[in-house]
């Protein structure tokens, strides 16, 4: 799974356009500023048309795999628990 963090909210029209697209076998779910993409056959074998996604969303994005997102969350939580000062 990949989480693509969007620079801005793409808006309701872009969300609806994205929902109407067929990218099988990949699955996509969009939140406010995150796009979750599931690659059942692996990202390396995907034929996902990234340029089409960029055109639909019309906002810059950066993606991270799910393991990296979880690791960054662990690091942030550890920093919050660390003694201040």
Note the topology.
Elements lengths: L1 E5 L5 H9 L6 E4 L3 E5 L11 H8 L3 E5 H16 L4
Antiparallel strand pairs: 1-3, 1-4, 2-3
- Which bin fits the share of residues in helices? 25-40%
Radius of gyration: 15 Å
What's the order of the H and E elements? EHEEHEH
Proportion in β-strands: 15-25%
Average the pLDDT over all residues and give the rounded result.
92
Biggest sheet: strands side by side, in what order?
Answer: 2-3-1-4
Oligomeric status of the shown chains? single chain
Query: For the report, how would you describe the main beta sheet?
Result: 4 strands, antiparallel
Structural class: alpha+beta
Number of helices: 3
Shape by Cα distribution: globular
Question: In total, how many beta strands?
Answer: 4
In whole angstroms, the N-to-C terminal distance is 38 Å
Unreliable runs: none
What would you say this structure looks like, in words?
The chain has 85 residues and is of the alpha+beta class. It has helices at 12-20, 50-57, 66-81, and strands at residues 2-6, 27-30, 34-38, 61-65. It has a 4-stranded antiparallel beta sheet. The N and C termini lie far apart (38 Å).
Task: Briefly say what this structure is.
By secondary structure, the chain is α+β, with helices and mostly antiparallel strands.
Label this structure with key terms.
85 residues, single chain, 39% helix, alpha+beta
């Amino acid at each position: 799974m990949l989480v693509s963090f969007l620079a801005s909210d793409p808006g309701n029209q872009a969300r609806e356009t994205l929902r109407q697209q067929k990218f099988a076998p990949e699955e996509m779910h969009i939140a406010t500023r995150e796009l979750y993409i599931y690659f059942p056959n692996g990202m390396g074998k995907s034929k996902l048309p990234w340029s089409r996604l960029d055109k639909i969303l019309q906002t810059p994005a950066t993606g991270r795999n799910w393991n990296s997102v979880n690791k960054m969350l662990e690091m942030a939580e550890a920093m919050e628990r660390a003694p201040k000062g």
